[in-house]
Write a structure and sequence with these properties.
121 residues, alpha+beta, three-stranded mixed beta sheet
Length: 121
């Protein structure tokens, strides 16, 4: 089959092609995705001279989603980095973050809860 340039088609043929394009595009559906990084900002949430948590912490990230994800699909990297950026944690090194655990459940509304627990030394 030989390709014919659109410009060489007569008006009736152009109208038919445009009608087919509209029909094909109307059959497509958009799948919504969760924006995991919405409402970000670089200004500190914690204020004051000693806003950081002084003791090492254990962090637990609990995710509620409409669909379960693979065990390795839950990542707290961005959330933990934002705890440092917001000055709640001094650093995310092993000296300050002793353990990170994850859990999930199916449900609505979708949300993520981050729990910081002071680790006794």
């Amino acid at each position: 089959m030989k390709a014919i340039p659109y410009e060489s088609l007569n008006d009736a043929m152009k109208a038919q092609v445009e009608k087919q394009i509209v029909k094909e595009n109307s059959n497509r559906t958009t799948v919504p995705t969760t924006n995991m990084e919405s409402n970000t900002r670089n200004e500190p949430l914690a204020t004051g001279k000693n806003a950081h948590l002084a003791a090492p912490v254990s962090i637990h990230i609990h995710s509620i989603r409409k669909r379960s994800v693979d065990s390795d699909g839950i990542s707290g990297k961005y959330a933990i980095d934002q705890l440092v950026n917001s000055r709640l944690l001094i650093d995310d090194s092993p000296a300050y973050v002793k353990e990170v655990t994850y859990s999930q459940e199916k449900g609505a509304p979708e949300k993520t809860t981050i729990t910081l627990t002071e680790v006794k030394q």
